[in-house]
Design goal:
The chain is α+β, with helices and mostly antiparallel strands. 20% of the residues lie in helices and 16% in strands. The longest helix is centred in the C-terminal third of the chain and has 13 residues.
Length: 122
């Protein structure tokens, strides 16, 4: 059963996200085409000013397409301290062993998310 489940995509639990989208608190955007400073350009030709990006995993870890100096180490892993990078406004969440064993698991990611929230708010 574990092998079967490990090959499936992670589900989104609960109705919270659906409700946030429905009442326009969260807006879904098309694929990001490019970024210049703090302006994101999307596939649908819209753009959005962004202060912070939290790169949340849950899929294959592969960062070779990210072309930001001093962000990825020689092993292909993000350089961070508890999810906080040296790039202002860029954070990671859900990495295996980000801070503790459960960091990459749904059950354990909450403590790391709270830590990042505190870092962003300060």
């Amino acid at each position: 059963m574990g092998q079967f489940l490990s090959k499936r995509h992670d589900p989104i639990f609960g109705l919270e996200l659906k409700n946030l989208i429905k009442n326009a608190t969260v807006e879904l955007k098309s694929r990001t085409q490019s970024i210049h400073n703090d302006l994101f350009y999307f596939e649908d030709h819209t753009q959005l000013h962004v202060d912070n990006v939290i790169w949340s995993t849950g899929f294959k870890e592969e960062y070779s397409w990210i072309q930001i100096d001093d962000l990825i180490d020689s092993n292909g892993d993000p350089i961070h301290q508890r999810g906080v990078t040296t790039i202002e406004g860029l954070y990671f969440l859900g990495l295996p062993w980000q801070f503790r064993r459960g960091s990459g698991l749904l059950y354990g990611v909450g403590k790391d998310a709270n830590y990042l929230y505190q870092q962003i708010c300060n």
